[in-house]
Amino acid sequence: MKVDAVQHGDKKVYSVGAFNRGVATWLQRLPSVWVEGEVTELRRQVAWQSVFLTLKDPADGACLPVTMPRGQFDALRLELVDGERVHVFGRPELFEARGDFRLRALSIERFGLGDHLAALERLKAKLGAEGLFAAERKRPLPLVPRRIGIVTGNDAAAKRDLLTTIATRFPPARIVVAETYVQGPRAAGAVIEALRGLCGVPELDVIVVARGGGSFEDLLPFSDERLVRAIATCTVPVVSAVGHEQDTPLCDLAADVRASTPTAAGKLVVPDRTELVERLAGARGRLGRSVVAGVERRRERIDQVHGRLRRAPALAVERKRATLEHAAGRLRALSPRATLERGYAIVREGSAIVRTPPQAGTRVDVEVADGAFGARVE
User: Fold this and answer.
1) How far apart are CA 287 and CA 188, in angstroms?
2) How many C-beta atoms lie closer than 10 Å to residue 99's C-beta?
3) CA–CA separation, 244 vs 325, rounded Å?
4) pLDDT score at 114
5) Percent of the chain with pLDDT over 70
6) Residue 116 pLDDT more than 70?
7) Confidence of residue 69 (pLDDT cuts 50, 70, 90)
């Protein structure tokens, strides 16, 4: 496509659109090439037609924007993450409307792990072997902390989101904010100093380390070994709210609780006041009903015992009477008088009872049921 210039005196002047079209046309004549670099700032959304990423040269930090149709990117099934080293095959192009130079990718191939990612994997394995990420060392968060410490940037949206969430959910919360660097080479040391300072604050029950999203390089300080160890050995529970859901710096693994966003961290460290009041009201009602029910059960038991006490003397007398009657019946059954009433007699010779026939002429006394009489043996 021919690009025309406008003659102004002895000068040929191109409009911005004409200049961009000319450059774009010239770039189209360049061949497709392979470019090597580390993936950073990978952005992919279901609603987007293209996937965007940046290739970074780890040697000098040079960057190259890359775009690729989402269908082609998904078909590769690479599951790329920031920090991976890749080879990208594509052709240079210029987005005329904005004058943005980029590489339009036709194919992407992995080329091992990026230097940073490989180092992080080695550090992760080392710290994991030491037990810094073990679940059993995680501490529970207090239900209602007396004081909350926040480590964040001085103008970060993360700080605003976190403070707003805490104030909305639990207005009486007391907060101590330690503003510090959260990006760059000084960030890790600055966050460590902020943590140490907050640990000296009286009645501090929990600390939130918060930072919003960013590129892979932006979040690297939160995978610094010194900071990870400082979080793991902190004297109070630590909540890590660094980056977005897909970001997982090593401080997330060392913290007692990981929050996907600063807003989510605010929901974790304080209860919802309205919900808490409702729960307390419910507990108070259940406690009152429990006391009333307990008193009622005690009253019923006392009534039952009182009734048994009233009936106890009569029952005791009745049992004694029954026992006596039973004994009397047994005595009557065993009495000699009962035997005589059945037609038997008792024969005595003097005072001795006759058990064998006496000699003839012996005088004996005979006792029967209705009296006694004398007799002589023949």
Assistant:
1) 50
2) 13
3) 93
4) 58
5) 97
6) no
7) very high
Spatial CB neighbours of 249, under 8 Å, sequence gap ≥ 6:
219, 220, 222, 223, 240, 242, 243
Q: How many domains are contained in the chain? A: 4
Q: With the C-alpha atoms ordered 360, 364, 368, 373, is the resulting torsion angle positive or negative?
A: positive
In whole angstroms, give the CA distance from residue 188 to residue 190.
5
The pLDDT confidence band at residue 90, using thresholds 50, 70 and 90, is very high
> Could you tell me how many residues make up the chain?
378
**Statement to judge: residues 125 and 266 lie in one domain:** yes
The answer to whether residue 351 sits within a structural domain is yes
pLDDT reported for residue 18: 83
- Runs of H (alpha helix) within 335-372: 336-341
Asked if the model's pLDDT at residue 339 lies above 80, the reply is no
pLDDT computed for residue 313 by the predictor: 86
Q: Bridge-partner residues for 53, per DSSP? A: 66
Q: Is 193 exposed, middle or buried (0-12, 13-18, 19+ CB in 10 A)?
A: middle
**39 - beta bridge partners?**
55
- Yes or no: say if 106 and 170 are a contact pair by the CB < 8 Å rule: no
| Angle (deg, nearest 10), helices 225-232 and 115-129 | 30
Q: Is the pTM of this model over 0.70?
A: no
Which residue among 85, 113, 141 closes a domain? 113
Predicted confidence (pLDDT) per residue in 273-332, tens digit = 888 888 888 888 889 888 888 888 898 899 888 888 888 888 888 889 889 988 888 887
Residues 196 and 173 in one domain: yes
Whether 169 maps to a domain, the answer reads yes
Residues spanned by the domain of 371: 336-376
Residue spans of alpha helices (H) in the chain: 16-28, 70-76, 115-129, 157-169, 187-199, 225-232, 250-254, 262-269, 273-334, 336-341
Q: Distance between CA atoms of 6 and 26, rounded to whole angstroms?
A: 20
Give Dmax (Cα) for the chain. 190
